[in-house]
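Researcher: I'm comparing several assemblies side by side, and this is the next one on my list. It has 531 residues spread over two chains. Same procedure as the others: predict the full complex and return the structure.
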Amino acid sequence: MSRPAFYRTIVIAVALALLEAACRLGWIDRFSLIPPSEMLQSAAHILASGEYTRDILVTFGTVAGAAILSVMGGFAVGLILYRWPRLKRAADPFLASYYAVPSFIFYPLFIVMFGLNRWPLVAVAFVFAFVAMAISTVDGFLSVRPILLRAARSMRLTRTQTLRLVILPAAAPYLFTGVKLAIVYAFIGVVAGEFILSGSGLGYRIAFAYQSFETATMYGLMLILLVSVVTINMMLWSRERRLHARLSR
Amino acid sequence: MSISATEPVSAPLSPVSAGQAHVAVRGLMRVYPAAAGRASLHALGPIDLDLMRGEFFSVVGPSGCGKSTLLDVLAGLSVPSEGTATFEGRRIAGSVPDGIGVVFQEDSSFPWLTVFDNAAFGLRRLGAAETEVKARVHDALRLIGLSAFAGAYPAQLSGGMRQRVCIARTLVMRPRFILLDEPFGALDQQTRLLMGDELLRLWRETGATILLITHSLDEAALLSDRVGVMSARPGRFIDVIETGWSRDRDSRIASDGKFGAITGRIWSQLREESLKSMEVAP
């Protein structure tokens, strides 16, 4: 284990121990917050009982769908903006202010468009996530050193070969960041959407447990969600770091 | 003017030969048209030049005189405004002909590929059999002394080693005409001398015609059969100096008294032009 990882583990372990003690000693109202050990027990029980398996699968399925669409759509938009610089210049102010608009305001519109099913959630998550991928794609393509493009020309690569064999690998760290952000934003979009209007999924179950005062269930579900998202993100982050290290000069 | 390493003499300027040239340039000019509030820029020419098969020719000139523009046109990366350039009798016109390899001043190795995969890049793109790829890449890596680093990534190598990777990537394609744009520009003097020796060895072993763009008068005088001295912009050849070195030369000729005579001759031509280029610099 590296030294930073060791310190990170120590900090988390100490924080959890303090939280456990604070809850057990009554410094924190158990009705508001249960000890981490009980959260873990609740999460284990939820997973073992299979009671929420369908909701977990529904949420992860929706996130996967939204993330895939966001990555594909964002990549396509990024590629178009890269190929047509004038279009990019025109779109720049919109891209810069895009995240100032709360995407959830479009939720009623998406219900009208897609009906009361999972598609409005996919649409909200897509709207939230695809621009991050588009921005990363165009930034990545523009970051490719001109000398690599000259080298590609000197080796008689066609335009498609240059994109596939030079631009894509050179921009890989940026594209990876885009994918990571698209997945994170898809999670936020889907789970937040489930909180508001859905009748299934992890977000809905957490909100339902909260409203029914089922504190242990609520924290168990939250822990499952948190651990899943953090694990996925850490895996992507680790891969992204390796890519950056390899491509650094 | 022409100068021999054995006996410096004056002779009429003659970059064009009487025989069949490997690379022939006639009346070549490059003018960048006016754009976005900028006046048109006459960057190069007119240039006439013949390179014989297997010749090592260096181009020196003041900054901004159009040396790299000349290389771009000869590589097929840029189209001349006027005139022609031919390679093995075929016209070079805006695309890189088969048989020409280019090594740039800046490191152009692909950082996501290992040294081996970098060198193999061109061959694999052409669909060469893997056994042939391995044989040719191993040969090229041995030639440039990077066999032990075949599995390393460019980020793990020094600047000089990365430049050698780029040379290997060019060599595996067995180019008959190699264009080098200040390939050792970023290296320290000792490494430059050693890389120059390696380049001479590669030149002898491959038999390729080489055109080297350089700012270093020493490098030009050491490596070349002939040195073309360019004027300030628009760049034209104001002198072509024959060094007269034997083909098996190496950097030890730097201690030869004739070496000083050649560099002195180049500098005497170049000094005035460098001053001019500083005066006209914006």
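Model: For your comparison table: Chain A has a mean pLDDT of 90.
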